[in-house]
Structures are given as structure tokens and as C-alpha cells.
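Before a colleague's protein record goes any further, I have to sign it off. What it holds is a sequence and that sequence's fold in C-alpha cell form. Would you go through it and say whether the fold makes sense for this chain? The record follows directly below this note.
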Amino acid sequence: MKSKVILRKDIPALGNTGDLIEVAAGYARNYLVPSELAFPYSEDANLRVEKDRQIAELHREELAAEFASLAARVGDVQLTFDEKVSAEGHLYGSVNISRIREMLATQGLELEERNIRLPEPIRAPGEYEVPIHIHGDLEVAIKVWVVATMPDDEIAMAEERAAEAAAEAAAIAAAEDEAEAAAKAEFEASSE
């Protein structure tokens, strides 16, 4: 059996203040009415809730403006993470929701982790778009850059390999110069 009630407060799963809804009679009788979340439907109840409906509408408009402002601020954000990578180019760790939330907090944007819709942690360098849920259907994407850096020991090894390669190239150049000088001397000696 169904019962008609008029909501006294916004209830996300049911409706907004002043909405006439139909729910199970027991739900209305045992929860909504005793909790002062709804009135049983009557013309008198409809008149009583009219002022609350207007106040709630103004409040929803204020919240919508606030959420739009937040969406504009979040939409302009770009985050950069300098991450150490292996020689194969894989991150040693990952960029996850928690780290993105912390980085947003340093920029004055306090969001909850559930608002960040990262499908899986980022494990490779590159550019990513991460959706941020603001409210309802309002969602914006931020750019997340993951920049590869090498660990200190790999940097030292790379510098050592570069120095060895430079020394080897210098030795080859010197040997070629010697060989060219010897060939020139031999040519001059044979032409005399």
C-alpha cells in the first residue's frame, strides 16, 4: 500500500522540500513523518511547507553558484608529479587518489577522495586527465602530468657511462689522428 507525503526537507533519494511523493505506507508512517522529514499529504500540509520550499530553493541556488565557482577553480588546475622511474621507464611507485588530493589541498582545494574519479593509479610517465566530481552531474577534469626522473644511483651510473663513452670516443679519435699522421708521414716519405 502506498501513501502520499510532502517532503519537509531535501532527501537526495526521494526529492526536494515541498515535493509530493508516493512511498510505502509503513515507510511514511514509521520513519518520514516521525522524523519530521515529511507531512502526510493534505492541503493544509501543502500550505505549511510552502515557506520551507522557497527557503530550500534559495539555498539550492546558492549551493549551485558555489559549486559552479568551485568547478571553475578546479578546472584550471594542473598538477605535476616528479616521479623516479626505472631504466625501462616504469614508475617505482604510483600516483593515486590520495596523492592527488594532497596536491590539490596544497593549492587550497579541499576535496574528499571520493570526489576524485581516478579509475586506477597512474604507473607511467605522461599526461592524464582526471575527472573530479563536484556535485550531482557537475564534473570537471584536471590535467595531471607525471614527469620521469631517474633515481640518484641511476643518474650516477648514467653519468659514469657517459664519461666512459666520452673517454672511449676521445681514444678512438686520438687513434684515428695517429693513424692519419702515420699515413701522411709514410706518404711523404715515399714521395721523396
